[in-house]
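Sequence, structure tokens reproduced for absentees:
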Amino acid sequence: MRTEQLEYIAAVTRLGSLRRAADELRLSQPALSETVRNLERELGVDLLERKRSGATMSGAGRELLPHIVSVLEAVDRLRAAAGEQHRISRTVRVGTVNAATVPLLIPVLREFRAGHPVTQVEVVGAQQTDIQRGLAEGGFDLGLVNHLEGDDVPAGMEGTELLRGRPVVCLRPDSPLAALRAITADDLLGVPLIAMRAGYVMHRYVHRLLAGRTAVFSYSTDGAEMGKLMVAEGLGATVLPDFSVAGDPLERSGTITYRPLAGETTRVLLVLQRRRAEPVPQAAQDLHTAFVRRARELARQ
């Protein structure tokens, strides 16, 4: 049994004539008639009553018509779902904590677009916890998150280290702290601090760095990009991984700068995460490969 046989029966029933159905389906009438007869032989019933005035559904056909309609509706739903799958496969969703946007993310997106001109990449800035939840639930294909060296990868995820850096203090060149070669935790107590909100690795790191000291947390924000803009506007200083600041347009223009933290050996890792052991759309796999390739180029530089 083939789907088109059921479609032909439905057309004959709707139009009341083999000839009209053949015209609409762009088939010859003998071919249509033979197709319907083949289905009747397979089912063992006469679906149509053929008269000179036209073909109508037989009593047995009327009993089977709801089942025929149900099958055709199910096929339509399958086709619609397949079309939606095709549409979704043309979109890759990346969650990011907005780290290394300029040296890593932007070049990767540019390269990926050249090879995948019809695939849309949706980049969503979010907290690390939200990114990992989105990965687990299928809302994201890939996630760019920060880890402190020694952090565990969440269960069900696999992570690829892309960049390894150190925490630095991001500040304006006219800040008193910019005159220092390296900045201590005590130095941070005397300036307004822009903190990352809870859920970001750098929020956890700064509180660990201060070790109970009372700092002036004037602002908190989501992600490095907004933190750098706030620093540029003179609202305070913030602590970020060096790969989030070095090469940024604001840093290249001299609007912001950065200094190392004295005596700090902590390393911050930028990790590309995805679900473990899941079938991966080819576009998402290609984007993952592009991230790894670009990260290796940065490491060589």
